[in-house]
Design brief:
heterotrimer; A mainly alpha (319); B mainly alpha (104); C mainly alpha (485); A: 319 residues; mainly alpha; 12 helices; B: 104 residues; Helix Hairpins; 73% helix; elongated
């Protein structure tokens, strides 16, 4: 009974925070409420026995998206005037959304009790052959590896576009909110945490995405400390870093195909090692992409390619 | 266990509705991104509620993996939208009004 | 044979990485990859003729646990459309982007988009389809940002991205309901299980409305004209020819394979009515638009509407044979529109580059400067209108006779009005282009090879598809949706 009380409190607070994040007056307040909403959601997921997701939501959903929104807030010097939508259209969309929500709630009520699905039964049978003990990692990197591979492609697409769109302006220096001392402590700490999360993903909550997010946080710290981040990297190295995760994944995936197996099949004896290899590559690429997405406005001067020395500097002309 | 699932699933459904209706309103871009993200979290909450198997029981890991994928896709999409918006502001800092849809 | 599926699904991703890592080789690499993909899709068609369904269990898991790649006649035909259009647009893009740095940015995203299209057509898993939809939406919006007219292109890309995200969210909510109710995400397994229930009905509504946004069915089309008309020409071609079409493909799978037990005639009539409105409204806007690209974009709204007209008719047709006939016509129509619209967008891209604009009332006499391109516009236009011997003529003929058989004569009226309007906007453009006017001095030499992709595509739509349509029906016969209905 007491759990039910906690559940109800949690859910009502979630709803209140959602409303606040959607309808608070200023954009800044909304972002803050959104971060609080995400953190509370992480608690709810921990309560629902989803520690992987609690970790990911806190690090990526609330943490990184929150940081992203906050940084975008600085950019938005003059907000766009709102579009004028016809009254009828607004009424119609509201009515349709309300109807859909109502139908959804009704459908959700009829769902329970759930019966044990086919997929989960097959998962329990196949877990011994997955190469890792932690079921979420097994699903992500083995049973449904194709999803994860395409997800890396989605991240790559976002990172490339962020680089393409970065306005041509120098990195602006602003007052560093972090002292060098703190950075020197934080950086190794974050790196070690990332490594630990990666390693532990095989048998406990954690894995490439959480580790990548923590590593990305290290770049954010560097950025806060006025480090120019990626601008000092050679552009070829940046391209390689971006490609690494997907490249390893595709390469390992093809390994067995050559020997007559399926795409993305791992030999049982080395599955654990291959999964760790893929995850390590994925972690680096994820960290790179997430921090690029966060750094956003700060361009790499030679992206995507060094202009030929004798020709016109087309990059400048284009931007 | 079923009551718990039901409470969280219905909350998820309500959050989806709230988020979607806000995302379809005319708002500054940042507000719409927040709205889409909140609706997304609502969908994830629905998934997690479905995966729940009772106190002390291991939950269904498949929806968990799906949600993890969804979280990463959501942050990528938000980053992309913010990057486009940032460039838009950079190119026309006067904020010369909304997109003129030639269909309007 | 499953090697073909692996190649079609992963080759674009390899190409994307290759173009990212070695930008200077991308111009050479891309046509080769595009050619290889066309080869794979043709081999796949050949294989499908022998074995109606080809499955590949990724990771060797299969069943309900893993994800499978699956190809049948419908997906193989659309894959062939996709690879052919991509090859033409790739060859075109090499010359279209004159700025090296823009081209270097273009290729990796281009191949990600192509990878998303192929992965979507091959996927047999509801959640995997969500990931492919997101990759499709993000890479399409990313490519739109490369448009020349920056602020307008960026605004259009932003709106496209946001509405696409809302669509994917609706879709994902539907996936959650399906997983809760049936405990699996594998489409072959779900096809045998889905029954009418409140959750199934809501899932159908959510999945459909999410995809309808991406398909731009009126009144959810508001994002399309701006996005398709402000993107670079090769991107517009692929967006109009393929991206909206593969989401329609997904709707077909949902309505006629998965949710057959749930879908009702009333639902189909609603979809058909929306399609009919799209046909007339889209054609009307196309006739009224002042820019060539905008005209082509509105024409896409209207042509997508025709595809939805088939839905209520397919559902009402009495026997298996007539359904198979109508279904073949639907696929033929989709292929015809894909090829013809891609040709049209590429040709308009050449006109725009030559004149520096695409205003309809200022193209007088352009036919004398670009005779080959204008010939391509005429051919593509006649395929879009549905003049014989194009594929659309056959398809519309079948649509009209089927609407009479099922006593739904009002769809006939819609098809006739739409065709007349389409003929009107085609005549308007061609009339202006061939008008005797003092031609402005040529601003640069147009190489014939730059005009060739559009011309070949247009000829393929008018002659190839019209005269060689019979194999489509025989290919679709063993597994066509008609069987499952």
């Amino acid at each position: 009974m007491s759990w039910m009380l906690i559940d109800l409190t949690l859910c009502i607070s979630l709803l209140i925070l959602a409303v606040a994040a959607l309808y608070a007056r200023g954009l800044q307040q909304r972002v803050v409420f959104f971060i609080a909403f995400g953190l509370l959601c992480a608690i709810a997921w921990a309560r629902l026995n989803a520690p992987d997701l609690a970790l990911a939501e806190a690090a990526i959903g609330a943490g990184l998206t929150g940081a992203l929104l906050l940084s975008a807030l600085n950019d938005e010097t003059d907000p766009q005037p709102p579009l004028t939508q016809p009254r009828l259209g607004r009424l119609l969309t509201t009515a349709i959304t309300a109807l859909l929500t109502l139908a959804l709630c009704a459908a959700v009520v009829t769902l329970f009790p759930l019966h044990e699905g086919i997929a989960i039964q097959q998962l329990q049978q196949q877990m011994p052959h997955a190469g890792v003990v932690h079921p979420v990692t097994a699903v992500l990197l083995n049973f449904r590896a194709w999803d994860t591979l395409l997800e890396l492609a989605v991240l790559l697409c976002a990172a490339l576009t962020v680089l393409n769109l970065a306005p041509a302006r120098p990195v602006t220096a602003h007052d560093s909110p972090l002292t060098g001392m703190l950075t020197r402590i934080l950086l190794p700490l974050l790196t070690v945490t990332a490594g630990y999360l990666l390693w532990t993903g095989a048998h406990a909550p954690g894995g490439a995405f959480q580790a990548g997010a923590v590593l990305a946080a290290a770049t954010v710290v560097l950025r806060l400390n006025n480090n120019p981040g990626f601008t000092h990297l050679r552009v070829g190295a940046l391209r390689a870093l971006l490609a690494l995760g997907l490249l390893l994944f595709l390469g390992v995936g093809l390994l067995q195909t050559v020997l007559g197996g399926a795409f993305l099949q791992y030999p049982p004896s080395t599955a654990g090692f291959l999964i760790l290899l893929i995850e390590a590559g994925a972690m680096l690429s994820i960290a790179c992409m997430l921090s690029l997405v966060y750094l956003g406005g700060h361009l790499h001067p030679h992206w995507p390619c060094h202009a030929p020395s004798n020709g016109v500097d087309t990059w400048k002309r284009h931007s | 266990m079923e009551t718990t699932q039901l409470i969280y699933a219905v909350t998820g459904a309500l959050i989806i509705g709230l988020g979607l209706s806000a995302a379809l309103r005319d708002e500054p871009l940042l507000a719409r991104i927040i709205a889409i993200n909140i609706a997304g979290v609502g969908v994830f909450l629905l998934f997690v509620a479905i995966a729940y198997r009772g106190f002390g029981q291991t939950a269904d890991p498949i929806p968990h993996a799906l949600v993890l994928t969804g979280i990463v896709v959501a942050v990528a999409a938000s980053g992309l939208a913010i990057a486009i918006n940032r460039r838009l502001h950079h190119d026309s800092p006067s904020g010369d009004g909304p997109a003129e849809d030639s269909s309007a | 044979m499953s090697d073909l599926l692996i190649a079609l699904a992963t080759l674009p991703l390899w190409a994307s990485l290759g173009c990212l890592l070695w930008p200077r080789l991308a111009d050479l690499l891309s046509p080769l990859v595009a050619l290889a993909l066309v080869g794979c899709s043709l081999l796949l068609l050949d294989a499908i003729a022998a074995t109606p369904v080809i499955l590949h269990h990724l990771g060797g898991w299969g069943g309900d646990l893993g994800i499978s790649l699956r190809a049948d006649a419908l997906s193989a035909l659309l894959l062939a459309l996709g690879t052919v259009v991509t090859l033409a647009a790739t060859l075109f893009a090499r010359r279209y982007f004159t700025d090296d740095q823009v081209r270097y940015r273009f290729w990796p995203l281009w191949w990600l988009l192509n990878g998303a299209i192929n992965a979507l057509l091959l996927s047999a898993d509801l959640f995997n389809l969500y990931v492919t939809l997101e990759l499709l939406g993000l890479s399409a919006a990313a490519l739109c940002t490369l448009g020349k007219d920056k602020p307008q292109a960026l605004r259009a890309a932003l709106r496209y991205l946001l509405l696409g995200l809302i669509g994917s969210l609706l879709y994902l909510t539907g996936v959650a309901l399906v997983y809760a109710e049936y405990g699996t995400l594998a489409i072959p397994s779900l096809a045998q299980q889905i029954q009418a229930s409140p959750a199934s009905l809501t899932a159908l509504l959510l999945l459909s409305s999410g995809l309808l946004i991406k398909c731009a069915l009126l009144p959810l089309h508001i994002w399309l004209p701006a996005a398709h008309s402000s993107a670079p020409a090769p991107v517009s071609a692929v967006l109009s020819a393929l991206v909206v079409k593969v989401t329609f493909y997904l709707l077909l799978r949902l309505w006629f394979e998965l949710f057959t037990a749930v879908i009702t005639p009333a639902f189909a009539t609603l979809i058909g009515t929306m399609g009919a409105t799209a046909v007339i409204w889209g054609s009307w806007r196309a006739l009224m638009s002042t820019r060539l690209k905008l005209m082509a974009a509105y024409s896409t709204v209207s042509q997508m509407g025709y595809l939805f007209l088939f839905v209520p008719i397919l559902l009402a047709l009495p026997d298996h044979d007539s359904r198979a006939l109508a279904f073949g016509a639907l696929v033929l129509f989709a292929l015809n529109h894909g090829i013809a619209k891609a040709a049209l967008f590429l040709a308009i891209g050449i006109i725009q580059q030559r004149l520096g604009h695409d205003q309809v009332d200022r193209i007088n006499g352009v036919a004398r400067q670009l005779p080959v391109t204008l010939f391509a516009v005429a051919l593509a236009g006649s395929a879009l209108v549905g003049l014989p011997p194009s594929g659309a003529f056959l398809a519309k003929w079948t649509l009209i006779s089927a609407s009479l058989v099922t006593a739904q004569w009002w769809w006939l009226l819609v098809a006739v009005i739409g065709t007349l309007l389409a003929a009107a906007y085609l005549v308007r453009v061609l009339g202006a282009a061939f008008a005797p006017a003092e031609p402005p001095p040529p601003t640069g030499k147009q190489l014939l090879s730059g005009e060739l992709p559009a011309l070949l595509l247009a000829a393929m739509a008018t002659l190839g598809l019209g005269l060689g349509a019979a194999p489509i029906w025989s290919l679709l016969a063993p597994t066509g949706l008609g069987n499952i209905l």
